[in-house]
Structure formats: C-alpha cells, structure tokens
C-alpha cells in the first residue's frame, strides 16, 4: 500500500479562504498565498522534471517522460479540486497535476527510481505510471485513453452513491482519438456525470503532428457531439486555466454534468528520453515554442501584479531546491523491491491459488531443485 | 429446495445479490426494461430501478471500462455482455486494465467486477453468436474464469464471483439456459472459486470437461456403461484458478484422460489441461491424453448441416473414450 | 464464390438519362422511369421483407431481421451510386440498399434459407449477413460498426489507387456510439477520403431508446468533430434522401471528402423475430410511427405528380409478386451446403494446413475410425 | 551475403517488398518521418512518400480495420502496431473481422494483411512494453502467426507473410533487434510459412522454442554439452499453422521434450505443443513434457530485480533439461 512520508515540504495547499488581498486574485477568489502557492507548484514541477533529466543523463534512471510546458495548465486546472474527496485519473505527464492534488515530491521520485516503497507501483511500473490510493489518485497504465472510461465509472459511482465527488481525467490530444474517449464522453453526457475530461493538446503524438491526428483544429468542438460544453484553455495562462476549470468543477459539483477542457500547451522536450524530436520538428518551430513556456509568463504576471517580489521568489527557489534535493536523495536511498514479492498481489487473497503460483510445479525452477512434478512433491 | 432452470438460477441469484448488497449494480445492453435478450435480468429493472439496472449504450469497452472505475469508487458492478462474441471490443479494458489493476498498483487498487456473458454453439447462432471465448481470458493472470454446468453451481459460483474482490468472467452456455434443470437450495450456500468436482465416479477413463460439455460427457458415460466401460467425469467449473489437484487425482487413478471442449481445438483451454497431465501425471498415464474438440474453422457455421458437423456431441465423446479405453 | 442467377426481374436500374419528363424529377435529374424504378425498389424491398416474416411464422426460416420503415431512405440514398464501380458496406437491415445496388431478390432469399449457393456466405452466416463479391458488396459480420472502418479503408485504397470509386457504409444509431465509428470518421476526415457514413436512426438499439444511447438529439452534429458535413435526412422522403445523398456522392467523387448522413427512420417491426417490442414501446408510440411509413408516402407523392397511375401500380405490383414468388421458391429449392465443405476456406490455400484440418489426428473423429495419433496413421 | 542485425533484416525487407509490390503500403503510429520508435521503417517515408508510408492517428482499431478495407480493395497493407502490448484495442478487428472474412464469405473475400508488432521482455519495458501476445492469436483459425529468431528467417518469413493471401501476425522480439546478427543473403529467397526447423541436432532432449527463447535454448545447449547432455533445439518459427511433423519427429527421436516460452505459463502457446506431444507422441515419451515459462503474474515488472525474476534465461532452461535428462 501507499507509504506516507514526512518531508520538509511547505505546501499542503492552504484552506481556500478567498481573502481579497490582491487585485489579481480578487475575482478568482484566490488569496496572495494561493497565487504564490500556485507559482511554487508550477516551479516545483519544473524543477522535479529537470532533475529527472539530470538523473537520466547520469544513468541513474533509464527513462524520463516529461511534463515541461504542461505545468501551467495542470496547476491551474487542478488547484480548485477538493483533495481527499475528488478523484484524479492522470496520465504520464501529470506531475504538476499530481503535486497540486497532494502527491509528494518524494513519491514522485520513488516512481522514477522504482523503489520498493513507491506507492505508485512498488517499482513494478515504468516511471510516469503514478497512483496513490489514499489520495484518490488512480493507478496509471500504459495503453492510452483507457483511463478516461475509468474516470467516467468513478463519476457514475459518485453520482449513484451521492458522495459529492467529482472525477477529473487527463490525456493527450493524440490519445483523444481513441474509441474509448468517444464512448466515455457519450456515456458521461447521457447521465450528466460529474466528470471533467482534460485534453492536454501539445500538437504531437510522439512524432505525429496534429494535422495527421485529426482534421479539426480544436478537439473542444467534439464536446457538442455529447451535449457537453467544450472549452479551450490557453496553457500558458495559469490563472485563465484556473478560472475556466473552476466553472467546470462547479458545474460537475452541482449536478450540471461533464465538461471537455482542451488545454493548448507545448511539449518543451522530446516525447520521452527515448525520442529525438529534431528528426521531425524544425529548429524554428522548437525555438518558437520557447515563448509558450508558462513559468516565466506566470512569474512576470505575478511580479507585474506585485504579488511576487525578489524576496518571495528567493524563498520559493530555496524551498524548491531543498524539496527536490530531499526527494531525490531520499528516494534514491530506498531499497529496490524484494524479488520474493514479485509474485504477490495477482489476486486479493495471497498467496495466489496454486496454479497461479510460479513456484508451483515450476519447470522453470527445476534448476533450483524444485519438485519435478507436483505429484511427487 | 426448488427445481429450476439454469437461467432461472442465474436470474434469481442476481436478484438475491442485489438485495443483499446495495453497492451492486447491473449494467449492459437491454438489461433494463427488456430484461436482457435471454431474460437473465428480467424483473430486476422493476425491482431495483434504472440507477442500479442500467441500460447502457451499445459500447462494450465502455461497459467494462466504466465498471472498472465504478468498482474503484465503491460499487460492485456486474456487467452483462450480450453475447460472449461481443466481448472483443472490451478486450483491452479486461486484459490490460481489469486484470492488471491490482498487480500494477502493488495491491493499492482492486477491481471487483463480475462480467457475465452467454457463450457457446448449437443454437443456430452462426459464427458470431456461438463462440467459446474462455481460452483468451483463462490465459490472463489477474482474471478468474468460471463456467457452471448445473443450476446448483450456477447459483453457488455466481455468488462467489460477485462476492470476490477480483475480476471474474462468468460464462453461461446459452444452450443450457432452458434445457437444463436441477435442484437449487434456497439457502445462502456458495460454491468456492477454484474447485473442480468429480460429477461421476469411474475407474477406466477420466473425461474432463466444463459447461455444456459436462452434460454431454455424462451422456457419453451412460452410453458406454452397457459396454462395461467405466467413465469418471470431472467438471472443471473454475477454469482459472484451476483446481489441478482434483483433475490430477482422477487421472492418476484412471490412467487415461479425454479432455473435452467445444471451442476450436488448437490452443484451446483444454490444451493447458492436457499439458498439465503430460507434466504432472506422466508416470500414471496408460495412454495418450486425447482431446475431443470443435474443429479449427473460424466459427460455428449457420446451416444446421454445417453446425451439426461442428459441434461436439455425446457420440463423439463416447467414440473417443471407447478407443482410448481399448488402448 | 457468388453465383449469378437469371431470373424474371425487370429492374437493373436504367442508364441515368436525365430526361426531364416529369416536374417532380426535373431538378433531380430523374426521369419518369427512374422515379417508377425507385418506387418499385421500395415496394419490392417491403414485399421481400414481409415474405420473410411469413416464412418465419411458417417455420421455414428461423430468424428474420427486418428493414421495414428504412426502405425509403435506403433506396433514395443508394439510387445514385455507380454499380460495378462503387463499394457498398452494408448492415443487416440493408435489403433495400442492396437490391438498389444490384443484389438480386434470389440472392436475398438464398441468405434467408442459408443455401449452399448463397453468395453471401454459402449458408455459413445467419440471415441478414449479406455480401456479393462481384458487385462490390462487402460481407457483413455481426459485431456492429466494425464495417465502418472497412469502408474507410476501401476509400483509402480508392484514393491511393485513383480508381474513382466511393465507398458507402451503413449502421444503426446505437452502433454509431462504438469507438470504431469515431476512429473511422477521424481518419476519413484527415485524408478527405471518398466515403459516406450513413447512420439509420430508428431511435432504438433493440430495446434501448436513443435517450439512453446518447445525449444529443442528432448524430449529425458529430460530423463537425471530424471536419465533415453532417446532414439529416427525413427517411420517409425518398426523393429528399436522394437529393441530399447525391450531394454527398458528388462531394466524395470530386475529392471533396467524406459526409455523415443521418437518416431519421422508424423501425416498423421488432428488432428481429426474437424480439417482443411491446415490452418496451408503448401502444401509442407504435401506432404513431405508422405515419412514418415511406411506402404510402412515396406512392401518394408519385400519384400527385402524375408519375404513378393505377395501370403503372398494377404492373409494378404484378412484377413484384412474381419476383418475390420466384425468389422464394427458387431459393428454397436449392440444396443445403454439403457438410464436407465446412472445413474449406479457412485460408486461401486449401486444404488448410495439417494442424488446422479438423480431420487430422482428430480425437473428435476417433469414433469414426480415424487414426488414434497422427504418428501411427 | 551480408551480415546484419535482426531489425536491419526487417527494415531492408520491408523496403524490398515496397519496391517489388506497388500495392503494398505501411501504416501505423510514427512509421513515417520518425521511421518507427525502433526505426524498423527508417528511410521508407523518404523513399516512398506519405501515401505509401502513412503516419496514422493513435488508434489501433482503425489501423487494422482500415487495413482490412484497403486489402479488400486491392492494396496489401502492412500495418505496424507500435508495441504488441497495444494490439489489444484492435483485438476485435483482428479476431472477429480479419480472421473470419474468408470463411464467413465462403471464400468470396480475403484479407491479405501482415500486422507487425515488437513483443517480449527483458528490455525494462515493464507490464505494458514487454508482453508476449502470441497465445491469443495463434488460437484463432483464419490467422497465421510468425515469430522469427534469426535475421535470415526474419527476412524469409517476412517476405512469405507479406506475399501471403491471408492475415498474418508477425511478431518481432524487441530484445533481438540489435543484439542478434546473422547472414542474410541478398537473393529473393523466402522461408515458407508453416515450417519449423531443427536448429541444433541432439539425441537426448528436444527443446522446442521460438523467438528469443531459441537463442537462449541454444545457449543452454552449449552449457550442457560439457556434461555430455546432447540437446536438440527446434525453432517453431510459424506458430500457426504449426509444423507438427517436425516437432513430433524430434521428440519421437529423443523421447524427451522441454517446451520453452517467455509468456505466462498457464494457457500459453507452449501448452498446445505439450498437448500435441501427449496425444501424438505418447508412445515415444520417456519422461514428462516439461515447460519452462514466465511465471503467472500479470506482466513483467519494471525494477531490474523483479524483471530478472520474471524472465526465462539459459540457466533456467539448462536446469530443466538437466533434470529431465536424468529422469
Ligand atoms: C494504445 C496505445 N498505443 C500506443 C501507445 C504508444 N504511445 C505512448 S504515448 C504515445 C503518444 C501520445 O500522444 P498524445 O496523446 O498526444 O499525448 P502526449 O504524449 O503528446 O502528451 C504513443 C503513441 C500507447 N501507450 N498506447
Ligand atoms: C459489438 C456488438 N454488441 C452487441 C451486439 C448485439 N446487437 C445486435 S443489433 C443491436 C442493436 C443495434 O442497434 P442500432 O445500431 O440502433 O441498429 P438497429 O438494429 O436499430 O438498426 C445489438 C445490441 C452486436 N451485434 N455487436
Ligand atoms: Mg500530444
Ligand atoms: Mg437503431
């Protein structure tokens, strides 16, 4: 099960007191603390991500899949969710969404190192396949878009059980063409389920550009086919994302049904550490998208509004530095999973039934002196 | 103690479990007002309403995918796939998601759903309303696969499946729905998953079967009795996890085994049983492990003359047993 | 392979000479002969369908799946296709589409009786699973909506091979919610393929009403999600269907890409001979939809326009009567398939390879005196 | 005669077939400019253009379903599924449609497509980038399933697959892509579908394997040679249709067989081979038919220590053979 860990992290998002202590946050009901916390989350996600690449180049983690460029939309969208009540059904680029929703940097790093105490999978899944049961964060798998139906089912249960929960799920624009997404939105529309479908549109499915993924400019237009609102979010505008996501959250919470949110973001790295994007993206295109980085944009916005000053930025920088250091060092120091546990949890009862136990009658273990046949054992 | 048909045992058990567990829901195509195309859920919509007996859109991947999510958030979904043949669009959700949820999350999440589906031929359903699909799913760790052959087991195994904390595929042979009747106690008994059963004792040849083929194996045993051929019939009942011990004990006793399945021969479920015999009971075998199966064509053809050609029947089983007994 | 049969059928649609010899057909480019032929096709489809039910009640065919109520839309939509060039990818209610596209009544009836010379499947599939290779009518299977992708692939080949063909495919509104339909329309939109997606919306998927199948009123709105036109057709208006379908056909033919056509029709029978629709449809609803029968509507329209008179109607009636009689009697008289052929055509080469031959090492045939093991044989 | 890697043999053969047959197209995710995530189609987009090397949307059911339609209308599609793990969304199109098109239409329509997909573990791919999926498809009449173990066979079998008039699943073990090299003649040779091969002669134990496991079996045979244990290794090469005769001849000669597969044990492909041995070679068997397989957990876990626990390796094969030889 998930291992909770204490660590020197400030956050644990403030109780949302909508103290109108800034111009900027006023009509959003966001206090200065909220704004600074949102900035911290965007910057922290970026810092964790950058650290992953360093660890990858250092040969300490074999694989990185990155959220750089997506963080602004992710923090803006998730900041208004109710931790401990709502459900998050993420995908592999969701680090910023996850830390906003309460997953800790140590837990994020445990997944990179695939350690035994990793709450996501105990080291069983590749990095990027997050999940934390005690925070209502559903386990990520690899086949894309399957989770969109899971979120819909979670919302169905929330509605039937009258729990007041909403479910939010995320996937990429390429994955949104999968049949499961169509079937999920159709079902959510029929029953007006409290679910929010977020498509993070970075314009590429690995190397395949949006022009070859779909004939439409905006995925959001598809929402009309399911009688739900489709909203386009500018992924570099953190507070704009928050504003529009809040409307969707309130709609879902109040029984108004599902919403499709399309966040236009940029993929600032290759698809993953295995990808060479220069092979299919031009130099100028890559240069251009630098201007689509939400972090400096948010920084400027907060400074112009007098919310962020040098002192505050220094404090946040320092906090993030220590948090990332701690998360990395602590996670790396944790032991690998014990191979003896590898056969556990195939089924609820353990040990699994005889025929499912690889140690049973195991020809592959004959070399270990196991029985030749179950009969003679 | 009531005598009822196979499908009546299923319908009343679904009803009983719905009453027993308020978190249980049924969802699928036409399961509501119509009560299912075979009437397995007839009356449940009236008793429990549309919130707990949901008519879904015609989308199997959604039926299973939404069930997984609902299970994760506290419900106990019992989806119906209208015909086992139409479970294929949900294959990814079952095999990639339901089966792996617990293992991949290191036991953080489970997936208690029971997927019911009618399977099998001999009902003039042709290629796409006759399939046996158990081989696909019984190969997958994380799934459980159940096929009852009597009304008694249909109830006992359905209860165990629904109450189980892992994904179960529960296949019902549609030819047995109304043709098979039997005693079904009104007690709250269960038949545990993972236990096979010797349904007829014999000494010379073990016939291992499941579903409709158990009925046929018993008929074959009757046919052979006059010739003094003593046949033991073992009902697998749970295909995964398999009760290997009961099967092996029988074959170690008789020394000869015929494995019967209606599905296509090559790579069918019975191949695993035969493989286990060859590995685990080799010293006890007095003859080859014979398989009596459907032929390797892509489906049960429609025209009665072709369908008859395809289907395993008691005579074919008896003929195989006779040959093996004389071996 | 498909068996061609000579039979006393008038039809074989006239060479489309757009002789303007009637008011009604004028702007449609339809001659009087065309109009009468379209009427004949609607009436013939109805007569064949009604005969199936009679045969079913007589215990001569165990299963009927009916197109009653759909015929007007089917004839109107298909009448402008190019037989022998274009591809039709039908579904189980497509009898009117099929006879319009050149499948013969005898061939339709062979499928009901599942005879050996049945060109659809040689008696291997249930009634309703049509297909005729030499007329570019693709074999129907049972899993719904799969064929929508096949039509899309046929159109891709037509485009790449520059054959000038278009592909038209049909499915029900319930089936249109399957993921395959979303994926097909998405791909067709990207490559502007010459394919027409026809959804015959009769308001029910067996017993499930449209309100539980989807949240939108019209499926046609989904076309916008794939950058293609979505057009609603009134299924009782045969000529209206023809007019709008022609625009889609010309668009596809001229490289203008795909179209989604939603024909609003009524299901005048139960889902199939196995269904009791009174269990889920009210008496008045069933009564009401009588007014949605395209046959009398078309009859009135043609009479009002002076295209159809008693003499012509009598002629057509008589023709249809003899055609249906002939098709039924001839098909019924054909032999059942030979069981010895049941193992053929698993693969192109026959006989199929040793391991795929059920007669090989066949334990199930031991009783027939076959070899105990291949080795000893 | 050139020496090349396994993936180079595949890439150059795709190129050659594209040149040879103007109706052949390649379609899949990232097969174009990127040349595939493993570079199996590298350079083909530049040579043949986007009309014949199509980057598709991220939709596997569409990739296969459109390929079926394109095949029906005169093209010869060779779709790539990026990882065998992601073939599941296309399961319905492959099993219900491609496999049955010819049979259900009584030979009126065929479906000449070759679906390529990288499979297998040992590459730190975890549950969803390591799967062996051959058991699902080799059970289905109407499909052919090919798994080459050498660059020579990769080319010869790929040619036969593409030129075949029925749907073929062609699985490539991703661990072999760059680790295995071998002679590949530049002649237009083919390796016929449905023929297994004795890749090492031996007298005491037959080891039957395919894909990467053939390489491991050969290593195991080397390990055992010093101990005077003579091992025959048979490469299945085509899983369906299976060349049963070659396998049976080997086992009738040695009297002992070890079936090796990387996939989960229960209901895996090797179960069928073991069943055939038990039925067809029973009189010749001098010991149980042993299987060396992956364990029955829902996938290959990621952490190197867990992955190592899962994977079959030469030592484990050797240990099994040693035990069986001494039986
Ligand atoms: C069903 C399936 N097919 C293929 C893949 C391989 N794959 C992983 S990510 C990816 C691209 C996803 O693109 P998009 O949905 O746009 O998300 P992004 O990575 O751009 O955020 C592909 C093809 C997969 N994981 N699952
Ligand atoms: C994948 C799949 N699931 C279920 C079925 C069973 N089935 C056959 S027809 C049908 C209803 C189809 O409704 P619709 O698409 O509206 O077409 P209609 O019959 O109304 O013309 C169903 C559920 C099937 N054939 N295929
Ligand atoms: Mg993307
Ligand atoms: Mg309908």
How are helices and strands ordered from N to C of chain A? HHHEHHHEHEEEHEHEHHH
Which hetero ligands occur in this complex?
thiamine diphosphate, magnesium ion
Structural class, judged by helices and strands of chain B? Answer: alpha/beta
User: How is the largest sheet of chain A built, in terms of strand order?
Assistant: 1-2-3-7-6
Percentage of residues assigned to helices of chain B: 25-40%
**Tally the helices of chain B: what do you get?**
12
Seen as an oligomer or otherwise, the chain set is heterotetramer
What string, H for helix and E for strand, traces the elements of chain B in order? EHEHEHEHHEHEHEEEEHEEHEHEHH
Q: Which residues of chain A sit in consecutive blocks of at least 5 with pLDDT less than 50? A: 1-5, 8-15, 350-377
Reported for the largest beta sheet of chain B, the result is: 5 strands, mixed
Q: Strand share of the residues of chain B? A: 15-25%
The secondary structure category of chain A is alpha/beta
Helical percentage of chain A? 25-40%
Into which percentage range does the β-strand content of chain A fall?
5-15%
Count of individual helical segments of chain A: 12
Structure description:
The complex is a heterotetramer, with two copies of chain A (377 residues) and two copies of chain B (327 residues). By secondary structure, chain A is of the alpha/beta class. Helices cover 38% and strands 8% of the residues of chain A. Chain A has twelve helices and seven strands. In chain A, the strands form two sheets. In chain A, strands 1-2-3-7-6 form a five-stranded parallel β-sheet, sandwiched between helices. Chain A has a two-stranded antiparallel sheet with strand order 4-5. Chain A starts with 22 loop residues before the first helix and ends in a 44-residue tail after the last helix. With 327 residues, chain B is an alpha/beta fold. Chain B is globular. The chains are: A alpha/beta (377), B alpha/beta (327). Chains in contact: A-B, A-C, A-D, B-C, B-D, C-D. Chains A and B meet through helix 6 and helix 7 of A and helix 3, helix 4, helix 5 and helix 9 of B. Bound molecules: thiamine diphosphate (TPP) (2 copies) and magnesium ion (MG) (2 copies). One magnesium ion binds next to strand 4 of chain A. One thiamine diphosphate sits between chains A (93, 142-144, 171-175, 200, 202, 204-206, 267, 271) and D (29, 58, 60, 82, 86, 89).
């Amino acid at each position: 099960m998930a291992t909770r860990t204490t660590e020197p992290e400030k956050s644990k998002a403030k109780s949302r007191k909508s103290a109108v202590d800034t111009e900027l946050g006023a009509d959003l009901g966001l206090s200065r603390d909220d704004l600074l916390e949102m900035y911290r989350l965007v910057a922290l996600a970026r810092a964790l991500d950058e650290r992953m690449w360093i660890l990858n180049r250092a040969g300490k983690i074999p694989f990185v899949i990155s959220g750089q460029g997506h963080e602004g939309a992710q923090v803006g969208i998730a900041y208004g969710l109710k931790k401990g009540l709502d459900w998050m059904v993420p995908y592999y680029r969701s680090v910023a969404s996850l830390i906003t929703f309460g997953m800790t940097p140590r837990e994020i790093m445990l997944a990179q190192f695939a350690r035994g105490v990793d709450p996501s999978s105990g080291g069983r899944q590749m990095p990027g396949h997050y999940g934390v049961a005690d925070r209502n964060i559903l386990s990520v798998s690899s086949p894309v878009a399957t989770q969109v139906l899971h979120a819909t089912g979670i919302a169905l249960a929330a509605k039937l059980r009258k729990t007041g929960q909403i479910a939010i799920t995320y996937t990429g624009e390429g994955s949104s063409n999968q049949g499961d997404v169509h079937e999920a939105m159709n079902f959510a529309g029929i029953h007006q389920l409290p679910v929010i479908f977020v498509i993070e549109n970075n314009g590429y499915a690995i190397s395949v550009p949006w022009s070859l993924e779909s004939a439409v400019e905006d995925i959001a237009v598809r929402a009309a086919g399911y009688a739900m609102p489709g909203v386009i979010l500018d992924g570099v505008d953190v507070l704009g994302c928050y504003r529009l996501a809040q409307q969707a959250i309130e709609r879902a919470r109040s029984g108004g049904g599902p919403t499709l949110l399309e966040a236009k973001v940029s993929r600032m790295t290759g698809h993953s550490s295995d990808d060479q994007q220069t092979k299919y993206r031009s130099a100028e295109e890559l240069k251009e998208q630098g201007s689509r980085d939400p972090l400096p944009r948010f920084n400027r916005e907060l400074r112009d509004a007098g919310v962020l000053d040098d002192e505050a930025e220094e404090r946040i920088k320092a906090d993030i530095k220590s948090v990332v250091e701690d998360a990395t060092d602590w996670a790396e120091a944790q032991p690998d999973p014990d191979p003896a546990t590898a056969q556990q949890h195939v089924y609820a009862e353990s040990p699994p039934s005889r025929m499912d136990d690889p140690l049973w009658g195991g020809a592959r273990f004959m070399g270990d002196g196991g029985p030749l046949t179950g009969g003679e054992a | 103690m009531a005598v009822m048909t196979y499908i009546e045992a299923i319908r009343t058990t679904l009803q009983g479990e719905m009453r027993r567990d308020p978190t249980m829901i049924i969802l699928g195509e036409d399961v509501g007002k119509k009560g299912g195309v075979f009437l397995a859920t007839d009356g449940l919509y009236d008793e429990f309403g549309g919130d707990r007996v949901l008519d879904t859109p015609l989308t199997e991947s959604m039926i299973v995918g939404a069930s997984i999510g609902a299970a994760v958030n506290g419900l106990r979904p019992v989806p119906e796939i209208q015909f086992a043949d139409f479970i294929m669009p949900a294959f990814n959700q079952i095999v990639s998601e339901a089966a792996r949820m617990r293992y991949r999350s290191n036991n953080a999440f489970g997936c208690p759903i029971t997927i019911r589906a009618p399977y099998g031929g001999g009902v003039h359903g042709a290629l796409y309303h006759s399939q046996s699909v158990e081989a696909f799913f019984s190969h997958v760790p994380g799934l459980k696969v159940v096929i009852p052959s009597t009304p008694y087991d249909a109830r006992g195994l359905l209860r165990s499946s629904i109450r189980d904390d892992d994904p179960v595929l529960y296949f019902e042979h549609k030819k047995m729905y109304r043709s098979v009747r039997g005693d079904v106690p009104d007690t709250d008994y269960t038949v545990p998953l993972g236990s096979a059963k010797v349904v007829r004792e014999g000494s010379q040849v073990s016939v291992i079967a499941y579903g409709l083929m158990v009925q046929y194996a018993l008929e074959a045993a009757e046919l052979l009795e006059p010739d003094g051929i003593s046949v033991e019939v073992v009902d697998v009942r749970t295909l995964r996890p398999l009760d290997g011990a009961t099967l092996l004990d029988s074959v170690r006793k008789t020394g000869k085994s015929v494995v019967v399945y209606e599905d296509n021969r090559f790579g069918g479920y019975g191949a695993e049983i035969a493989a286990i015999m060859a590995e685990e009971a080799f010293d006890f075998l007095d003859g080859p492990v014979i398989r009596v199966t459907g032929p390797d064509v892509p489906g049960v053809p429609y025209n009665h003359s072709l369908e008859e050609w395809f289907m395993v029947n008691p005579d074919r089983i008896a003929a195989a047993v006779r040959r093996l007994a004389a071996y």
